[in-house]
Amino acid sequence: MAIKSLMTSGKKSVHRKTEEENSFSLLRHKIDSLFDDFFRGVNREPFETRLDIFSPKVDVTDNDKDITVRAELPGIDEKDIEVSHNKNTLTIRGDKKVDKEQEGKAYYRMERAYGSFSRTIALPVEVDADKIEAQLKKGVLTVTLPKSAKDREKPKKIAVMIE
Question: d(Cα 145, Cα 133) in Å, to the nearest integer?
Answer without folding.
Answer: 7
